[in-house]
Structure formats: structure tokens, C-alpha cells
Design brief:
The chain is an alpha+beta fold and 144 residues long. 33% of the residues lie in helices and 22% in strands. The termini are far apart. The mean pLDDT is 79.
């Protein structure tokens, strides 16, 4: 990597999440020891506006992920494990208790007994047809 610069945001986040003030040599060392999760790219959208994808480096030694702009060679930010449990800029609030529904549930049948009878009706009809056909065959009749 060419000349690397550290953004102000990167320095603040590094100090907060890693514990000491970052130096370019230390960041370069950790980048060479880290695993590339995503490569950086410079893209252009359909309407012609530029879009950058930052390179992500995972360093298991200090348990951080560093986001680096590989086009301008700027370290942008640092992610760490302590970010997982913190609320993301909003208060955690309890959901209100749900009021019971005043309407009756919509169903096609009036009661559960009718439901069970209607479900078993096709099976009963098939059983009756099989018994009818079997009885006709046993007596020698032919059904058309």
C-alpha cells in the first residue's frame, strides 16, 4: 500500500475502541497481519454518480475491522466487538401490550364440529364408493 493517511474519525474511533492513539506504522502493521474481508472498489452508478466501496480488513489480533478507502489510501473507521451490544442511536423501548381483538375470528364454518365433519366428508364418500364398487364386483354386477 502506498502512502496511508488516517482520517480524524479513524483516529477518534481507534482511541476509543482499541485504547491508544494510532500511528501509521501500527495501522499498516495490523493491515498486513489482517484478513481481507472485502476489497475496495470505485464504481459508477447508472446515472453517472461515483460510488466507493471501502475495503474491510479483519484483524483478529486486536479484534477489530478496519475500513479503508483504497482509492485515496485513507483509513476511514474502525469497528470493534463492543459495538455489537450498544443501542444504535435510539432508546430501547418496550412494546405496548396488544389489545384483544373485539371482532370474532373470520371462518367459513360456524363451529369446530362442522369443520371436522366437512374435512372427513370426502374420505367418507370415497369409502362408500369403494364399498359400493366392491359389493357390486363380488356379486358379479358391472357398473358403468
Amino acid at each position: 500500500m502506498e502512502k496511508l493517511t488516517l482520517s480524524k474519525h479513524f483516529c477518534q474511533r481507534w482511541q476509543k475502541r482499541v485504547g491508544n492513539w494510532p500511528t501509521i506504522d501500527a495501522v499498516r502493521h495490523y493491515m498486513t497481519q489482517s484478513i481481507v474481508v472485502q476489497g475496495g472498489k470505485s464504481l459508477v452508478t447508472f446515472n453517472g454518480t461515483p460510488h466507493r466501496v471501502l475495503a474491510l480488513y479483519w484483524c483478529p489480533e486486536i479484534e477489530t475491522i478496519m475500513a479503508v478507502d483504497t482509492v485515496q489510501n485513507v483509513a476511514v473507521t474502525v469497528y470493534s466487538r463492543d459495538m455489537v451490544d450498544r443501542p444504535r442511536g435510539r432508546k430501547a423501548r418496550k412494546k405496548p401490550a396488544r389489545k384483544p381483538d373485539r371482532r370474532q375470528p373470520v371462518s367459513r364454518y360456524k363451529d369446530n364440529v362442522a369443520d371436522a365433519q366437512r374435512a372427513s366428508l370426502p374420505l367418507a364418500l370415497r369409502a362408500a364408493a369403494v364399498a359400493r364398487d366392491f359389493g357390486a364386483r363380488a356379486s358379479g354386477e358391472r357398473r358403468i
